[in-house]
Design goal:
Helix content: 25-40%
CATH class of the largest domain: Alpha Beta
Radius of gyration: 24 Å
Largest sheet: 10 strands, mixed
CATH superfamily of the largest domain: Metal-dependent hydrolases
Oligomer: single chain
CATH topology of the largest domain: TIM Barrel
Strand content: 15-25%
Mean pLDDT: 94
Number of helices: 19
């Protein structure tokens, strides 16, 4: 690519790019003129600009929109939202799953901080050293990001945070009274008026706080959930987001709740995460049928689906994921010394074994059903001399050598490492049939591609690569989806779901959030452990291949895999930065 500097009416012209506009329009070669952060013209442009870049046929698409992140805290110490920007993401949405950083009364700071560390697995050292925690209202919190961001960022109002604000310690003890629900509604209404893009909540059994209690939103009654959803209806907010209790197999009550949340809020409801694997061929359609039933009732319900298999890393030290195994939470929440002793106690181990057996090998139990097949779990990293040489081997390998039970062998290993052993289940979703099924789901109009969880579970996984994974494997190497369709799913679909004004397309008048990439080389790099969070906390990250340039509001934030020094991202607020999204059409 060549670049030259001129001086004329445009700030920037991208020359001779292959434009994929986000609308499934056939790709075509064109110039793109940009001024004031917006696209002014697309076509053959004879005028000059202050800066011109020759793209030599590289693809230019809208910037990718990631609607499910937990970058709320990370953006304070990392305003570039690493590594998402390197994968072409120009807009991130935080505040998902009911976990937001505002409202934040001084009495609740430690609880919210510890909840984010526990349930979203963000290192506590990073939260303590990288975030000031000195705001109160939602407007004050999002105002802190102004002028600092690489990508655009919008935020949802989180149920657990609001519930803790109103009920204090009782938020994790009981249902709310009518008066307390009314007070929560008042807090939510204020958050929405101050720019929250919507309301988020969680009922998932794996979501527990630092004290081992279910997070506040899990104590909500159905009437509380619907009352809060009703606050969204008269506002400018555009969505309701939910983590269901059983994302692998809905009960009829859960389906009715999803539908009623949509009808009550008059907004689409999105939930995460739809798992697609050849081991459970019927599961996706069973879950997506909730969306069909919603449409029949005049509602909209959309599952989020990833473009890749995520192999979560887990340990008996943080306990996340495995504490969802039946009966395991009480043991994994013991102090470390007591936990190690409990894992050597015959009666306790038998209880754990019985709980895991209830879900082992059951595809409808998603990740925990896979993890509980202990012989298939891989040892990623060990720390004691007794465990030297075990990395890269499966528990089953060791169990066969020792002629012992796999769970007993695993517990011997983790006790020797003082619970620090890093483990991962098998990647059951990377076989050809799973990839083929996943690609069919991407194109289903009931589904939205996303759900990266970027910014959360940073020592367990790196979901931020889903965009380049779709373009690299889904389009380039496997040919499972066309380029125009893939870009449509990564841009226009999520942007319209959240009503993001003038974002998600390459078109005159729209914001110049753009990605320039080489379709012949695009893809993610290998995931690596980094230690550059505050407090030298570890996290998983991955660069990209073939993503040549990323522009946010017409300003370049990444070039050839490196970040620039510019921070053009905007805080997106409901109302000024969104268009109304209504399921009723009113």
């Amino acid at each position: 690519m060549n670049e030259r500097i001129n001086s004329d009416m445009y700030d920037l012209i991208l020359r001779n790019g292959t434009v994929v506009d986000g609308l499934r329009t056939d790709r075509h070669v064109a110039d793109i003129a940009i001024a004031g952060g917006r696209i002014v013209d697309v076509g053959r442009i004879d005028d000059s600009a202050r800066r011109e870049i020759e793209l030599d046929g590289l693809v230019v698409s809208p910037g990718f929109v990631d609607v499910h992140t937990h970058y709320d805290a990370q953006l304070f110490w990392d305003p570039l939202a690493r590594p998402s920007v390197l994968h072409g993401v120009t807009t991130v949405i935080g505040g998902n799953c009911g976990f937001a950083l505002a409202p934040l009364e001084p009495r609740n700071v430690e609880y919210i901080k510890s909840m984010m560390s526990r349930v979203e697995a963000i290192p506590i050292s990073a939260l303590e050293e990288g975030v000031t925690w000195d705001w109160e209202g939602f407007a004050e919190m999002i105002g802190r990001y102004e002028g600092t961001l690489g990508p655009n960022a919008g935020f949802l109002a989180g149920h657990s945070t609001i519930r803790r604000s109103v009920l204090g310690e009782d938020a994790t003890r009981r249902e709310a009274t009518e008066d307390e629900v009314a007070r929560m509604c008042a807090v939510l209404t204020r958050c929405l008026s101050e720019g929250a893009l919507g309301f988020s909540t969680s009922l998932h059994p794996a979501h527990s706080d630092a004290f081992g209690d279910p997070v506040p939103s899990r104590f909500a009654s159905r009437s509380e959930l619907l009352a809060l959803a009703g606050c969204v209806k008269p506002s400018a907010a555009t969505t309701v987001q939910l983590v269901p209790e059983q994302p692998a197999r809905f009960s009829s009550d859960e389906v009715e709740l999803l539908i009623d949340l949509s009808l009550t809020s008059d907004r689409p409801v999105n939930w995460n995460l739809l798992k697609v694997t050849s081991a459970d061929p019927e599961g996706p359609e069973i879950q997506m049928s909730a969306s069909t039933r919603a449409l029949d009732r005049g509602a909209r319900v959309h599952p989020l689906v990833l473009t890749q298999s995520i192999r979560p890393y887990f340990s008996f030290l943080n306990g996340f994921v495995i504490d969802a195994l039946p009966g395991w939470a009480s043991v994994l929440r013991l102090p470390i010394a007591e936990r190690i002793a409990a894992l050597a106690d015959r009666d306790t181990v038998q209880m754990l074994r019985a709980g895991a057996a209830k879900v082992a090998g059951r595809p409808e139990m998603a990740t925990i059903g896979i993890i509980a097949e202990w012989e298939r779990v891989e040892i990623v990293e060990t720390f004691s001399a007794a465990n030297a040489g075990f990395a890269g081997r499966t528990v089953g390998d060791l169990a066969r050598e020792r002629r012992a039970d796999p769970l007993d062998v695993l517990l011997d290993v983790v006790r020797a490492d003082e619970l620090r052993t890093v483990l991962t289940p098998p990647a059951l979703e990377d076989d050809d049939e799973s990839c083929r099924r996943r690609a069919e789901v991407w194109k289903d109009p009931r589904v939205v591609v996303g759900g990266s969880d970027a910014g959360a579970h940073v020592e367990m996984m790196c979901g931020a690569t889903y965009t380049t994974k779709m373009l690299g494997q889904g389009v380039r190497t496997a040919g499972l989806i066309g380029l125009e369709e893939a870009v449509h799913q990564l841009t226009e679909i999520p942007a319209r779901l959240y009503g993001l004004k003038d974002r998600g397309r390459v078109a005159p008048g729209w914001w110049a959030d753009l990605v320039v990439f080489d379709p012949d080389t695009v893809g993610p790099e290998e995931v690596q452990v980094r230690h550059d969070f505050p407090g030298a906390a570890a996290h998983l990250s991955a660069g990209s291949k073939g993503v040549e340039r990323v522009f946010v509001n017409g300003v370049e934030v990444a070039e050839a895999g490196e970040y620039t020094s510019d921070r053009p991202g905007k805080v997106l607020r409901s109302g000024p930065d969104t268009e109304r999204v209504s399921v009723s059409g009113s």
